[in-house]
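seq:
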Amino acid sequence: MASFRRFRPDDLDKFSKCNLDPLTETYDLSFYLQYFAKWPSLFQVAEDPSGNIIGYIMGKLESSPDIFKYSEHYLPWHAHITALTVAPEARRLGIGKILTENLELAAEAGDAWFVDLFVRKSNTRAINFYESMGYSVYRVVKDYYGDNVNDPTAHGEDAYDMRKPMPRDKTLKHIREDGRNHEVQPDDVF
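struct:
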């Protein structure tokens, strides 16, 4: 059985089981510590009874800079899932779902309009997982990822920008049903 708690800096030494997945982005230490310092309630880990980190989620609360307020791509106050990963031996046990639900509760407490995330267009498992939790594709970000895990000769890979409305968005203003038909460039994503 897993236990869930906020991330601590000494957890960085225990991430390797989770970060070996080729679909998991690995960041430098300062990036993880920045999230810990700025958004501690949105950075949680799942730990097994032996103290091993078997999953984690990193998120943040943000909006686009005010200078972009009148841009069609402006993002109001929202939560963003930067990373969610579960170690291979701990998958299909509901750990990712609990971590995501905990982040959504923090987003709601932070008065976010929605939670969003980026996922590789080829990562059908993750897309199905998020759709089962109420997320939908808002737009396609062309060549968002500089590499393509399925085809090393390809230039890059598109991402789906997926969103789930929070209770504040009573009119569902920040989601759309036909998101797969809306393409943007990486420069359009703030």
